[in-house]
Specification:
The protein has one helix and seven strands; from the N terminus they run αβββββββ. The protein has a domain of 84 residues: Immunoglobulin-like (Sandwich). It starts with a helix and ends in a 15-residue tail after the last strand. The chain is mainly beta.
């Protein structure tokens, strides 16, 4: 059994330093970053945008064992966390929005107009 689980772990792209896990979606106008945030108080999540990076900080409270029970296995981490994600362009902080729904933090990171791709028309000579 250990051999089977070791193989699964070896192919995972989520390490213990990459907590909580994030997904980053891209298009030509902005980025959408989603972060697994189940059990967090949205009022206690700090999102900071600076240049071409976004940093998310928070605290996941420790879960107490029910009365008369002891943990047999404890996999859900608790405590402070910080995730910093480098983006391929600078972000317009005034156009950044964060929402929390069903345990997922979504951060819409707008690209400044000056850095958005522009279509160039080709004229016949």
């Amino acid at each position: 059994m250990t051999r089977v689980l070791a193989g699964v772990r070896a192919h995972s792209n989520v390490g213990r330093h990459e907590y909580p896990p994030v997904n980053l979606y891209v298009n030509n106008h902005d980025r959408l970053l989603t972060l697994e945030a189940a059990g967090l108080d949205p009022a206690k999540i700090d999102v900071t945008v600076s240049g071409d990076s976004v940093t998310i900080r928070g605290v996941r409270p420790a879960e107490a064992a029910p009365s008369g029970e002891n943990f047999h296995r404890r996999e859900r981490p608790a405590g402070q966390f910080e995730r910093a994600v480098q983006l391929p362009f600078e972000v317009d902080p005034s156009q950044t929005e964060a929402t929390y729904e069903k345990g997922v933090l979504s951060v819409r990171l707008a690209r400044p107009e000056s850095q958005k791709p522009k279509k160039v028309s080709v004229k016949a000579a």
